[in-house]
Amino acid sequence: MKIGLVYDPIFLRHVPGAFHPERPERLTAIRERLEREDLSGLVEYLSPRRARREEILWNHSEAHYERVASTAGKASVQLDPDTATSEDSFEAALHAVGAQFEGLDEIFRENYRVVFCLVRPPGHHAEYDQAMGFCLFNNVALAAHYALRVLKFSRILIVDWDLHHGNGTQHAFYRRREVLYFSLHQFPYYPGTGRMEEVGREEGTGFTVNVPLPAGQGDVEYLAVFKEILRPIALQYRPELILVSAGFDPHRNDPLGGMRLSAEGFGAMAEVIQEIAEETAEGRILLTLEGGYDLTGLAESVAEVIKVLSGQKRVEIRGEPSASFREYLRETRQFFSRYWSL
Fold it and tell me: Which of 60, 95, 125, 145 is catalytic?
């Protein structure tokens, strides 16, 4: 099965700083890896479109849009301590959002079952009225809005496996049940949100599922969370579409993280997501690049995900979680059993 890849050179022209970890070389490394013989026949490239102002306003304030737009053509603007722009960052951000829409259209037309958006800047920290955490506009949240508003889906699952909690995505749908947001992330850590007790409000109560993890977890622990918490909840929710905030900073070599995932671990998580999608969503998955700052680890992890989702590989993760982690899983299932059958 071919995987659609949405990409454009505009994403290389977002340059937040000479020594910034979210650098253009991230995409260059992924592209070079995808061109090797074991992957080149598995992917087909697609072009993004430019998102329109009114589409950005589905998830962001006018003031925020204008603030980001005002950076166009300027050599460097610092939007928060971690988030800076260059001359073409605004255009890159609009195309990163438009990549979501193009990818979803391709899935909706049944041209692809799986599409991966290779975009920069990332998005899941971007709030309604604030750029933060390297993110300008919230790509995945806007993908969910597009799927609800334009494509008329009614149940969407967002899986966020980035090292950091996706505060902006969580807040976008915190009071809604049309989107189930699931995140596992290093905690305590930036941005400070993502406690288990953050479960949504009003009609969205129970439709935010946070699994905060201490540093040092690896393939076995992540896969256990996917199999014992994500899968049973997702199969009860029965999403019609799965969106993945695919951050690769939980990789064991990532300079910003403290987790121990291997490239194969990301493949194993993708396999679980694909099983859910096959069961409930006719296989429909849209992945969007978030973090991941070790270039080799990032490229190899993306390669594993592509191999798994294209049907070229199955991953076997050996080992069992420790007794203490099994107890954590038990307590987590018990907590969420007030909303889901676990």
Answer: 125
